[in-house]
Design a protein that fits this description.
The complex is a heterodimer of chains A (245) and B (257). Chain A has 245 residues and is of the alpha/beta class. Chain A has helices at 49-56, 97-108, 113-126, 142-154, 172-187, 199-205, 223-228, 233-244, and strands spanning 11-20, 23-33, 38-42, 64-69, 82-85, 160-164, 192-195, 208-213, 216-221. The chains are: A alpha/beta (245), B mainly alpha (257). The interface between A and B is medium-sized, with 29 and 22 residues.
Chain lengths: 245, 257
């Protein structure tokens, strides 16, 4: 395969493979994402979609192939350049919402406490929960917690935001408030990779949709193509299943 | 409240025990009767051991927690060679019985130090502090390790994605949560230290047990004196329990406020 020009892309994955012992979770994944692009990754469980974003976040290591984020290896990014939103929120339960947001800027970037606080409040406004600033995460609803988690990443001024099934752990009535915040972020031009089964969100926001199965990227389409005429039978079957209900 | 009830129950049962045996003539409470001059002098003599037992226990516990934390942290290093000292320390120290270790530190350590050209005499108090701290630190280290392991992985991952280094993640995210979890087992260890401090009597430290021993030698009333000694430790331990419960309540309130 020809080498991908790494200069202009936000992300390049080339022939990336990863094994857990004998089990291969990713085989020869090749993918590029441009700055400002919104990519949705979907696929059945165990297809390797979470692994892709976890590799990009530097949370796991791969065994072969190359990964570049803005032209540099994953470990060589600036602190907080790659933001990550988890399915389980992973807020820090012993800190208040405001302290959750300030921790990264104060400790990792050396921002003054006052600047970090102003910034944190600005982002809390943006995710529409400034009134919860002094509560602990345990006192918030799931939707509120996830919005705090998004704000916490944004406080680090990331160049790329990764979402690993951000609405899968939420009660149905809270999914919309989180998706709204994400759409807001998309409109502002953030580069986003989102693992999700929210196909309505994908249709509205995604520039492209990647379908993964068995550790491979089966196809990458624009939403129009994906929802009207998917190329592979597997993708068609998958869409059929999740769109039916 | 519960503490108070438990204390009264304990005292009551001991008194009942004493009362039941009184007719047989085995007890002679006069030796620690606060209403006779000799009894009162004896009680004051015994109670003067409290301050050394408390000082010894608190110092040993604080040192044990510091050593334990320092020993526990390398257990989370990525390199096997950094993890190794943790295992060796824990397995080795944990295997030494307290009494031989006390003898080794008090009688042996100054000799070893002298051969290394260091002239340091260790008095009974510091000998006991060092021994208790070392002996207990292996357990404290394991408690820290289990507490740190109990914090969900997602916490460290989230810390990493907001740019914290591994050390910062440990300091600001993992440890504060681990400490809340390990408070009960740490309290357990503190109680253990208070009780084990009785061993310091054998190297001549004037704490509660030593004073009881000395009084027994002059008064020939071991049963009464050791009964009071047990009550002295009971009071200390119950105070610690109450303190820890208060601390736990405060921390829990903190988390959900």
């Amino acid at each position: 395969m020809a080498n991908i020009d790494q200069g202009t892309h936000a992300i390049t994955l080339q022939d990336v493979s990863k094994w857990y012992d004998d089990f291969q979770v990713l085989s020869d994944v090749t993918l590029t994402v441009d700055p400002g692009e919104k990519l949705v990754i979907c696929g059945p469980s165990g297809s390797g979609k979470s692994t892709v974003v976890r590799l990009l976040a530097g949370l796991e290591a791969h065994q072969s192939g190359t990964i570049r984020v803005y032209g540099r290896p994953v470990g060589a990014q600036g602190r907080g350049d790659v933001g990550m939103v988890f399915q389980q929120f992973n807020l820090f339960p012993h800190l208040t919402v405001l302290e959750n947001l300030m921790l990264g800027p104060v400790r990792a970037m050396g921002t003054s406490r006052r600047d970090a606080r102003d910034r944190a409040m600005a982002y809390l406004e943006r995710v529409r929960i400034p009134e919860q600033a002094n509560k602990r995460p345990g006192q918030l609803s799931g939707g509120q917690q996830q919005r705090v988690a998004i704000a916490r990443s944004l406080c680090m001024d990331p160049k790329l935001m990764l979402f690993d099934e951000p609405t899968s752990a939420l009660d149905p009535e809270m999914i919309a408030e989180v998706l709204e915040v994400m759409e807001d972020l998309a409109r502002d031009g953030m580069t986003m990779i989102c693992v999700t089964h929210e196909m309505g969100f994908a249709r509205r926001v995604a520039d492209r949709i990647a379908f993964m199965d068995g550790g491979q990227i089966v196809e990458v389409d624009t939403p129009e193509v994906a929802f009207s005429a998917p190329k592979s039978a597997r993708f068609a079957l998958f869409l059929d299943k999740i769109l039916k209900h | 409240m519960i503490t108070r009830i438990r204390l009264s129950v304990a005292l009551l049962s001991l008194c009942t025990l004493a009362a039941c045996s009184a007719p047989v003539g085995t007890w002679g409470w006069y030796v620690i009767d606060p209403f006779t001059p000799t009894g009162w002098t004896n009680i004051k003599f015994l109670f003067r051991g409290f301050s050394s037992t408390i000082q010894l226990s608190v110092l040993a516990a604080v040192a044990s927690i510091i050593i334990g934390l320092v020993v526990a942290l390398p257990a989370f290093a990525q390199s096997r060679w950094l993890r190794l000292p943790n295992r060796i320390y824990v397995e080795f120290i944990r295997a030494i019985p307290l009494l031989p270790m006390l003898f080794w530190v008090f009688y042996g350590l100054p000799v070893v130090l002298r051969t290394m050209g260091i002239n340091l005499s260790i008095d009974p108090f510091w000998g006991a502090v060092i021994t208790l701290a070392l002996s207990d630190s292996a357990f404290t280290a394991e408690i820290f390790r289990s507490g740190i392991q109990a914090v969900p992985r997602g916490q460290a991952e989230a810390a990493q994605t907001i740019g914290l280094s591994r050390a910062q993640a440990m300091r600001y995210v993992i440890l504060p949560q681990a400490v809340r979890r390990i408070l009960p087992p740490l309290a357990n260890q503190f109680i253990y230290i208070v009780k084990m401090s009785a061993f310091a009597s054998v190297i001549g430290m004037e704490e509660l047990t030593r004073r009881a021993n000395e009084l027994v030698v002059t008064e020939y009333r071991p049963l009464e004196i050791y009964t009071l000694l047990i009550l002295e430790y009971l009071v200390l331990v119950l105070i610690i329990s109450a303190g820890v419960r208060w601390l736990e309540r405060r921390m829990n309130a903190d988390e959900s406020r």
